[in-house]
Amino acid sequence: MMIRIAAQALGFAMLASAAFAQGVPTLFKIVTPKDEVVIGVAGTDLDTLAKTLVANGQITVWQYAVHKAASGDLEQTPLRRVAILRQDTLRIEPYTSPLKVLPLPP
């Protein structure tokens, strides 16, 4: 039991510290019964993200959306912080965008 709790805490700490890291995040698509949401998480992979969601029941991440820059170019930008709940998530998949992906806010 103690090992499981320690593993869950470590997974959450890794995800939380990665979310505050500088640089371009990895994008993922979260599929729910109602909709799909594109999120950005820095410094993590699909397995770590999924394990953290299962272990903690929820995660708070940045939702990404397409936005037109001042230059007129389209880019993926952080829109708002959202909570993803384990029971509402059907699937998490990597998401690739042909657009420039902006870094997470500080």
Keywords summarizing the entry:
39% strand; alpha+beta; 106 residues; globular; 27% helix
Question: Would you spell out the secondary-structure blueprint of this structure?
Answer:
Layout: H1 2-19, E1 26-31, E2 36-41, H2 46-56, E3 58-68, E4 74-85, E5 91-94, E6 100-101
Helix pairs in contact: 1-2
Describe the structure.
The chain is α+β, with helices and mostly antiparallel strands. The chain has one domain. 27% of the residues lie in helices and 39% in strands. The protein is built from two helices and six strands, in the order αββαββββ. The protein has helices at 2-19, 46-56; strands at 26-31, 36-41, 58-68, 74-85, 91-94, 100-101. The chain has a six-stranded mixed sheet. Strand 3 and strand 4 (74-85) form a beta hairpin. It is globular, with a radius of gyration of 14 Å. Residues 15-21 have low confidence and may be disordered.
**H and E order:** HEEHEEEE
Major β-sheet annotation:
6 strands, mixed
- Helix content estimate: 25-40%
Spatial strand order of the main sheet: 5-1-2-3-4-6
Structural class: alpha+beta
**Shape, please?**
globular
As for the number of domains, it is: 1
Give me a quick take on this structure.
With 106 residues, the chain is an alpha+beta fold.
